[in-house]
Each structure stands twice: as structure tokens, then as C-alpha cells.
């Protein structure tokens, strides 16, 4: 059951979009292209986030047109036709009638009529909003029509003289989440919490990382998620020091650390959670020391999330705590200021502390405005994910430190008076993690 698929939400978003481009402009939005996996097999289709945000429509080979004030209708859709035979193979299509009745289009046409119908909208517009490069096949068709409408300009006095990327407007809208969007995200996060708990409980020495990936997939799908919102990272021992390790093909050993970065997608919205736990055991003294540094950095960074604070604030806080911790453990030497200024910490902490989260795991929206780190506002959701990574071949540290990685990642909503950790149901205190890793 879709949470964000309420017609009113989509209508309100289109209305805001039309207000932003009016008067004298038309927006043409392509659906995501179909991607071939191999031979005649396609990847499972996933609609473009911006297209879904405005329409709620999940079928490929579609185009949505927003043309404020146009006498023939302001919201027009081009879709695949109904086709009894094709639908027997690949499932129901909404068709032209469905686009109007179920998705609120004022007018709808089959996609093959694009060349015939779209010029009616383009020739009345001074500007066309179109995201070039998203769907190359469609780019060719739309650009041809725009060029044609442009050549009519001297005669008609109208017709587009500029192509503008509509994504700036849509992405700014997407940065601040509506209640229905937050609801879908909460579902994705609740399902992800179950997956992480299951993984910590199941992971034991002698098992393969792939088996834990399968447990995560099971938890996602059996609880109603579409699947993972990005490839799950199940990284044991030294693999955890590879940031985007997704092979998940190593046999795990009891007592090693296991870093799992996995989040479900529910109704087009993502969760993004990382936990690190000792496989089938309690933390060793050294693991505990490293874990406590990362946890302390994360908790203090989360505290820095509030309206009016800058997006970079959590990163700056986390970095300070990580550097102090590494100095105390003898991993880094010198003053904290010097280490930060020279970037000496980057050997062990090489990524930023967070990113926007929403329909996309690395969600859209500006991080800097007018040259400065963006000010946080209620409704924004960001991840807070500090980590420490020590490569297996790092000869600057004692051998016992080498070949491990720790990251702790939560999803945090900026609220009117501070923040809410939306992923708080995923255990991260040492006691709560060990209760699962040592459960019989
Ligand atoms: N899972 C990707 C990230 O944490 O940014
Ligand atoms: Mn993340
Ligand atoms: Mn992540």
C-alpha cells in the first residue's frame, strides 16, 4: 500500500511547480529509461524520482507536461497504450484513460503522439523546462520539437528561446519532506531496523557475508519493502576498510567486526543505516575503544543537528571527536588543530559525515548556498555517519589495529526545536549490540 501515492500530494506538488515556472513556460518531464541487464533481460524498472514526485506514475515510456494556463489543460501525460497482448506478458498498463482517471491528467495521449501533440504546448511557451541527459532517446525527440517551435518564433512571436533544467526547482522542493514522505521513510527505517537486528543475531563465524546479505533481503521483502535502496554492504574484518565493498563474498570469523550498511526502499523512499558489531561475540578491549570513539563522535554530531545550524556542523563536531580519540589511542600524533588542518586524519576518515536522504539515498538538494554551508531547516533529513577505517597493510599502527572498519550511521530529521533520530530503533549501544551478537 503506497503511502505517498495520494493524489492530493502529487497535485499540490504540480501546482507549486507550475507556480514556480509560470507564466509563459512549459515543463516536459521524462520517465526513467529502461536499462538492459544482459541480452533481452532488463533491470527491474524503477521510476525516476523527480517524475514520480510529480506524478506518482511508475510506468516507463511516459512523459509528463506541465503547462500553466494552457487552454487545452495544464497537466498532460503521454503514456504507453493499453495492449491486451503485451499486458499478458508484462502486466497492466494505466493507458490514456488511467492517466486521466487515476493520475489526474487533464489530457492524456499515447506516447507515439508526442510529435503531434507536444508542439501545441511548446509553440505557446517562451521557455521550456526539460532535464537534458536523463533519457537520451527522448532527448532527441524533444529537442527536435523544441528546435521546430523555436524556428516558428519570428512568425508567431512565441516559441521557446531557452531550455532550463527543471531539476533546480524540483530538488529544492524535495529537500524539505512532507508528512506523507516522512511516513514512507519511517516505514523504510522500521523495516531496516528489523533487518539489522536479524543480521546481528544471525551472523556467526563460518558463515558467508552473502548469507547475511540474504537475511537482510529477506527482512526487507518479507516486511513489504521494495528491496534495498542501494546495494547492501556486508563487510567483515578487513573488508570494512573498503568503503563501497559490495562483493559480500568472504567467509566471516567469530570475533571479527562486521560492518553492515543497508537500508530498505519503501514506496520510493530510502533508509540508510550502518551498524558495526562483533561476529557472534562481545567486543574485545581494542574494538570497544575504537567503537566508543565512533559512537561518541556520532552522538555529539547528532546533537549538532538543529534548525539554524549549518549542514557542516555535525561533520566538524564528529571530526574533532574522532581526531581526539585517534590521538589518545596513538594512531595519530601532534595537535588536533594541526591534524585537521593538514588533513592527516584522512588516512582513517576519508568521507564526509552525512548527506541528504529521501527518495534517493544520496538525495537531491544543495549543500552550499551563496558559498556557505547550508542552514538546516525543519523537515530536512540527513544522515550522520562517522567512521574509522584502518587498512590491513597500514604499518603506521600496531598490528592489532589493522584490518578493520567501524561506521555508525543514523537518519536524522531536523525538527522545529532540534532533531529526531528516525532510526533510533536500530540498536547501537554496546550492551544492545552484544545482546544480539551473543544471543543463542
Ligand atoms: N550507503 C551509502 C552511504 O552511506 O552514503
Ligand atoms: Mn549514508
Ligand atoms: Mn549508508
How would you describe this protein?
It is a single chain. The chain has 440 residues and is α+β, with helices and mostly antiparallel strands. It folds into two domains: 8-171, Creatine Amidinohydrolase, Chain A, domain 1 (3-Layer(aba) Sandwich), CATH 3.40.350.10; 176-437, Alpha-Beta Complex (Creatine Amidinohydrolase), CATH 3.90.230.10. The model has no long low-confidence stretch (mean pLDDT 96). It is built from 14 helices and 21 strands. One manganese (II) ion (MN) binds next to loops.
In the CATH hierarchy, what is the architecture of the largest domain at level 2?
A: Alpha-Beta Complex
Helix/strand-derived category reads alpha+beta
Q: Share of helix among residues?
A: 25-40%
Radius of gyration: 25 Å
CATH topology of the largest domain: Creatine Amidinohydrolase
Helical segment count: 14
Net shape: elongated
Beta-strand percentage range: 15-25%
Low-confidence runs (pLDDT<50, min 5 residues)?
Answer: none
Question: Which ligands occur here?
Answer: glycine, manganese (II) ion
Distance between the termini: 35 Å
Main beta sheet: strand number and arrangement? 6 strands, mixed
How many E strands?
21
Give average pLDDT, whole number.
96
- Widest beta sheet: strand line-up: 6-5-4-1-7-8
Q: CATH superfamily membership of the largest domain, which one?
A: Creatinase/methionine aminopeptidase superfamily
**Total tally of structural domains:** 2
CATH class of the largest domain: Alpha Beta
Amino acid at each position: 500500500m503506497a503511502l505517498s501515492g495520494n493524489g492530493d500530494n502529487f497535485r499540490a506538488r504540480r501546482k507549486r511547480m507550475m507556480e514556480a515556472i509560470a507564466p509563459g513556460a512549459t515543463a516536459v518531464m521524462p520517465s526513467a529509461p529502461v536499462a538492459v541487464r544482459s541480452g533481452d533481460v532488463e533491470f527491474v524498472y524503477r521510476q525516476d524520482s523527480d517524475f514520480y514526485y510529480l506524478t506518482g506514475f511508475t510506468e516507463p515510456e511516459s512523459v509528463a507536461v506541465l503547462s500553466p494556463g494552457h487552454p487545452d489543460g495544464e497537466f498532460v501525460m503521454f503514456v504507453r497504450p493499453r495492449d491486451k497482448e503485451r499486458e499478458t506478458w508484462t502486466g497492466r498498463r494505466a493507458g490514456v484513460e488511467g492517466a486521466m482517471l487515476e493520475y489526474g491528467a487533464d489530457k492524456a495521449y499515447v506516447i507515439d503522439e508526442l510529435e503531434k501533440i507536444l508542439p501545441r504546448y511548446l509553440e505557446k511557451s517562451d521557455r521550456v523546462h526539460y532535464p537534458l541527459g536523463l533519457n537520451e532517446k527522448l532527448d532527441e525527440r524533444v529537442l527536435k520539437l523544441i528546435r521546430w517551435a523555436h524556428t516558428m518564433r519570428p512568425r508567431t512571436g512565441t516559441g521557446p528561446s531557452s531550455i532550463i533544467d527543471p531539476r533546480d526547482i524540483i530538488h529544492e522542493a524535495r529537500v524539505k519532506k512532507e508528512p506523507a514522505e516522512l511516513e514512507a521513510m519511517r516505514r523504510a527505517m522500521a523495516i531496516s531496523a528489523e533487518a539489522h537486528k536479524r543480521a546481528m543475531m544471525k551472523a556467526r563465524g563460518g558463515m558467508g557475508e552473502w548469507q547475511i546479505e540474504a537475511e537482510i533481503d529477506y527482512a526487507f521483502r518479507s516486511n513489504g519493502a521494495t528491496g534495498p535502496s542501494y546495494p547492501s554492504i556486508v563487510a567483515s574484518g578487513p573488508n570494512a576498510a573498503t568503503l563501497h565493498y559490495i562483493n559480500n563474498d568472504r567467509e566471516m570469523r567469530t570475533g571479527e567486526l562486521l560492518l553492515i550498511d543497508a537500508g530498505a526502499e519503501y514506496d520510493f523512499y530510502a533508509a540508510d543505516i550502518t551498524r558495526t558489531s562483533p561476529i557472534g561475540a562481545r567486543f574485545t578491549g581494542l574494538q570497544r575503544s575504537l567503537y566508543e570513539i565512533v559512537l561518541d563522535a556520532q552522538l555529539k554530531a547528532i546533537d549538532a543537528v538543529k534548525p539554524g545550524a549549518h549542514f557542516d556542523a555535525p561533520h566538524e563536531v564528529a571530526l574533532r571527536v574522532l581526531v581526539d580519540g585517534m590521538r589518545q589511542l596513538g594512531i595519530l600524533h601532534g595537535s588536533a588543530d594541526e591534524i585537521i588542518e593538514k588533513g592527516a586524519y584522512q588516512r582513517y576518515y576519508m568521507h564526509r559525515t552525512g548527506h541528504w536522504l529521501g527518495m534517493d539515498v544520496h538525495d537531491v538538494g544543495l549543500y552550499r548556498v551563496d558559498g556557505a554551508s547550508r542552514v538546516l531547516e525543519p523537515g530536512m533529513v540527513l544522515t550522520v555517519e562517522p567512521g574509522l577505517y584502518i587498512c590491513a597493510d597500514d604499518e603506521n599502527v600496531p598490528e592489532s589495529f589493522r584490518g578493520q572498519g567501524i561506521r555508525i550511521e543514523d537518519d536524522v530529521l531536523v525538527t522545529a526545536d532540534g532533531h529526531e533520530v528516525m532510526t533510533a530503533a536500530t540498536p547501537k549501544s554496546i550492551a544492545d549490540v552484544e545482546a544480539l551478537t551473543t544471543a543463542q
